[in-house]
């Protein structure tokens, strides 16, 4: 795995017993995985009693490096030998490598699901249908006399198709059509370069 210099420095700090005792090392590894998996950003995630005596700048650098390393390992689907050899290069002892890998195995599937849910491509439009409606009156005014369109887009995105329905006025529909034409021209220009 290729890691930036700052990630390597943070991981090397995490590897040294002088910076992190065994108990604080275990806690920081656990906290790093939990912070990636928690749905809400918890500002107190590093406020564990075992981490209080560690310099806050060093703690934050090591935490950032650990979470980056974890995400990179999951992204590359790294196995035990890859993770072990990478951690050995960063001066980790055998017992610290084992602690890291066992925690990694415990949370790996959840992290894979989390990363798989990020960055999905937008749905593809298969079909569009529309219907013209006419507002005669509404609850506040007796006469509105306004046309509007009911638009239905049939979309597909790695699974069953679903409909996206919305309404718009004539002006909004004209604006939408204009923007779609502009987008089509941009795509055409980009494909010719």
Automatic annotation (TrEMBL):
Residue span, COMM domain: 124-191
BP-aspect Gene Ontology terms: sodium ion transport
InterPro entries the UniProt entry points to: COMM, COMMD3
Highest rank taxon of the organism: Eukaryota
PROSITE patterns: COMM
Similarity comment text for this entry: Belongs to the COMM domain-containing protein 3 family.
Protein name: COMM domain-containing protein 3
């Amino acid at each position: 795995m290729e890691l930036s210099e700052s990630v390597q420095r943070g991981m090397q700090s995490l590897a040294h017993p002088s910076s992190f005792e065994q108990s604080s090392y275990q806690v920081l590894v656990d906290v790093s995985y939990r912070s990636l998996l928690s749905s809400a950003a918890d500002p107190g995630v590093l406020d564990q009693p075992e981490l209080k005596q560690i310099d806050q700048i060093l703690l934050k650098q090591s935490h950032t490096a650990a979470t980056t390393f974890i995400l990179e390992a999951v992204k590359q689907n790294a196995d035990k030998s890859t993770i072990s050899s990478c951690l050995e290069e960063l001066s980790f002892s055998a017992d610290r490598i084992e602690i890291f890998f066992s925690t990694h195995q415990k949370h790996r599937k959840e992290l894979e699901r989390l990363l798989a849910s990020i960055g999905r491509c937008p749905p593809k439009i298969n079909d569009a249908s529309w219907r013209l409606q006419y507002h005669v009156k509404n609850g506040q005014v007796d006469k509105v006399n306004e046309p509007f369109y009911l638009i239905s887009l049939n979309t597909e995105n790695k699974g069953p198709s679903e409909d996206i329905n919305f309404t718009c006025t004539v002006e909004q529909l004209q604006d939408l059509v204009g923007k779609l034409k502009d987008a089509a021209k941009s795509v055409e220009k980009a494909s010719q370069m």
